[in-house]
């Protein structure tokens, strides 16, 4: 079977490229020929364009602003090199495509995972991620573990669920809370599947890690969302915890690390402090003590749902909590819960491919 994956593989984001890699590898393990369709989604391309002439022209008359902009461009360039290197090395990419031309020769198209139905990211419903493209007779379009948010789902509701689902032969979401919401809005039962990063075992991820003492025994902090005025909140909590357990802090939020380094620091962490879904996932994969903080900004359900589903309530924290010790963490129990949690996702994929 020839399988094409459509996702946010072009986002310079650790979770985006790793979930894409995971889905590719999982399907390959089942004996299929797998390609990442190199769809250049306009909004994603624009977000990660670090050099813009319009910005340069606005700042050229202001030396301090220009210095900051040059620094921003350097960081963006370095980050792009890191992510392009990972994509070129680990992802089986097709040639470039746009919304007017998606290849029609695949037997199965898997659309997902990631926040493909979040209209704030794609600037409206993207026709490709909404499965609105022609394919050859007998092909199937499968929505796998797609994430979104309630405003986006309300928008789809205004368009009409019947029309929306016409593009898919099978469809699933990543969060139970969002699936319940769609069930209520559409009257249709929605399957819930795991993010692809949870489909691979620790050994598979370990093969991407770098093995050096520098990656071990740190408190690892990772954020991709920041509350105004509280940008350093998680770092402050890490500093307090570090005094109690006597170890260094590594902040992965800067983007100064390549994908393999990012993964290696989480694998070797003494504790992970985060408000990120994928940092939460990899802490679980590598059996690391974890504090996932809720920001109450409408995007917490992605990791809150996951942690609640495996009964790790003690790892879910509000910002008014400051840890002074490592959370209790039964590795055997968590591994068992994750194994059980994988089964519906494995069945969904294997029965639809």
What is this structure, in a nutshell?
The chain has about 350 residues and is an alpha/beta fold. The protein contains 14 helices and twelve strands.
Q: Report the top-level CATH class of the largest domain.
A: Alpha Beta
Question: Beta-strand level of the residues, as a percent range?
Answer: 5-15%
The average pLDDT value, as a whole number, equals 92
Number of domains: 2
CATH fold category name of the largest domain: Rossmann fold
Shape: globular
| Gyration radius from CA atoms, angstroms | 20 Å
* Weakly predicted, low-confidence segments: none
**How many beta strands in the DSSP annotation?**
12
Strand arrangement, major sheet: 3-2-1-4-5-6-7
Assembly classification = single chain
* CATH architecture name of the largest domain: 3-Layer(aba) Sandwich
Please trace the helix and strand order, writing H or E for each element. EHEHHHEEHEHHEHEHEHEHEHEHEH
Distance between the termini: 8 Å
* Structural category: alpha/beta
Helical amount among residues, as a percent range?
A: 40-55%
Could you give a short account of the major beta sheet? 7 strands, parallel
Annotation field: number of helices: 14
Topology:
Layout: E1 2-6, H1 14-29, E2 33-39, H2 42-47, H3 53-59, H4 63-90, E3 93-97, E4 108-111, H5 119-122, E5 140-146, H6 150-159, H7 161-165, E6 170-173, H8 176-186, E7 191-192, H9 202-206, E8 219-222, H10 233-245, E9 249-251, H11 259-267, E10 271-274, H12 277-285, E11 290-293, H13 301-309, E12 316-317, H14 331-352
Parallel strand pairs: 1-2, 1-4, 2-3, 4-5, 5-6, 6-7, 8-9, 8-10, 10-11, 11-12
């Amino acid at each position: 079977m020839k399988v094409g994956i459509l996702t946010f593989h072009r986002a310079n984001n650790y979770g985006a490229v790793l979930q894409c890699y995971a889905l590719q590898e999982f399907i390959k393990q089942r004996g299929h020929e797998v390609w990442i369709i190199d769809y250049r989604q306009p909004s994603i391309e624009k977000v990660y364009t670090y050099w813009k002439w319009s910005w340069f022209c606005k700042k050229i008359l202001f030396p301090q602003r220009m210095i900051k902009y040059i620094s921003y461009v350097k960081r963006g360039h370095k980050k792009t090199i890191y992510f392009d290197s990972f994509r070129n090395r680990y992802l089986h990419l097709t040639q470039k495509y746009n919304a007017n031309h998606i290849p029609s020769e695949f037997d199965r198209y898997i659309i997902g995972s990631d926040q493909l139905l979040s209209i704030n990211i794609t600037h409206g419903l993207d026709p490709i991620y909404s499965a609105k493209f022609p394919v050859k007779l007998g092909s199937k379009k499968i929505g796998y573990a797609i994430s979104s948010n309630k405003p986006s789902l309300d928008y789809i509701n205004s368009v009409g669920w019947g029309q929306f689902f016409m593009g898919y032969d099978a469809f699933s979401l990543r969060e139970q809370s969002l699936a319940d919401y769609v069930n209520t809005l559409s009257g249709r039962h929605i399957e819930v599947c795991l993010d692809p990063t949870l489909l691979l075992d620790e050994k598979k991820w370990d093969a991407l890690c770098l093995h050096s003492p520098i990656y071990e025994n740190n408190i690892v902090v990772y954020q991709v969302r920041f509350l105004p005025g509280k940008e350093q909140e998680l770092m402050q909590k890490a500093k307090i915890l570090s005094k109690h357990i006597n170890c260094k802090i590594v902040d992965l939020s800067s983007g100064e690390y390549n994908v393999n380094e990012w993964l290696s620091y989480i694998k070797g962490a003494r504790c992970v402090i985060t408000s990120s879904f994928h940092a939460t996932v990899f802490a679980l994969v590598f059996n690391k003590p974890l504090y996932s903080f809720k920001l109450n900004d409408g995007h917490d359900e992605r990791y809150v749902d996951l942690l609640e589903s495996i009964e790790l309530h003690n790892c879910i924290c509000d910002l008014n909590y400051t840890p002074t010790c490592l959370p209790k963490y039964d590795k055997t129990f968590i591994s068992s819960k994750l194994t059980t949690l994988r089964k519906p996702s494995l069945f969904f994929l294997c029965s639809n491919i």
